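step 4 of 6: structure.
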Amino acid sequence: MPELPEVETIARGLAATTVGKHIHAIDVFLPKMLITPNKQKINILLGDSITAVSRRAKYVVLNLASGRRLAIHLRMTGRLIFYPNTDVSRPPHTHVSFTFTDGSQLHFADMRQFGRLRLIDVSETWDADGGIEPLSPEFTAEYLWGLLHAHRAQLKNLLLNQNYISGLGNIYVCEALWQARLSPIKLTHTVSRPAATRLHRAIVQILEKAIAARGTSIDDYVDSRGNAGTFQHSLQVYGRTNKPCFRCKDRIVRTIQAQRGTWSCPSCQK
DNA sequence: CTGAGATCCTGGGGGC
DNA sequence: TGCCCCCAGGATCTCA
């Protein structure tokens, strides 16, 4: 499931391959995957060109010469696959395809159909779900401590909430909590300053390492060239049910929290 | 403000 | 071998 490092990897790949391309054709095979303002037609983008590709939260953002933007959320199984040349075949479960004037193509595919491609108008203000970017200078240990103490939630639930911090998902939250030795069900307002500092450092370090590893490929994730990431080899707790904790040798447990699998070490995460 | 539960989907795994 | 059932889960919605 693409989280911040996977989306960052995809955005960087597309920045290298699609910037400067002019949109020649758009094929929509599953209209519900599109969200457009005022029922605007996606074909308004014909003739437009890509000026930049960036990431905001878990969205890949295609910035266009017209000032419009396409914000693409991949949810669990979404993919953005770039084809350098026109191909009669498409990736499986392709729902929207862009063909550029040079014949190259960008395909938006999603097996489970949870992803969305959102057209943002020139005048529209859009900031994903408003959370702070965890790799921005504004995200400090002090900021995190303040955030934790402004709420009374279970730690994992707050970290997953995109209104507060952008881009964290199940994998990296489990990993960060393990590294910081904090229980996923600990209440946010009880986290001490040293613990908040540990958690801040863990979040930043793990995201940076995962970006360097081009993301985590467990089930479905591949980048825009179809290549898998490698961070799955560096996971410390995620998916390691009943295996020994790398820190204290106790067994990792899997619990359900907010209807999601949660992995933690009951001995050294307090 | 917070959480619980349902919803959307389909491929894959477990059980028989 | 084949078939049925169930499950994974990010974001959003309703309801408490």
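step 5 of 6: annotate
 - Helices of chain A lie at 4-18, 141-149, 155-160, 170-179, 193-212.
 - The radius of gyration of chain A is 20 Å.
step 6 of 6: archive
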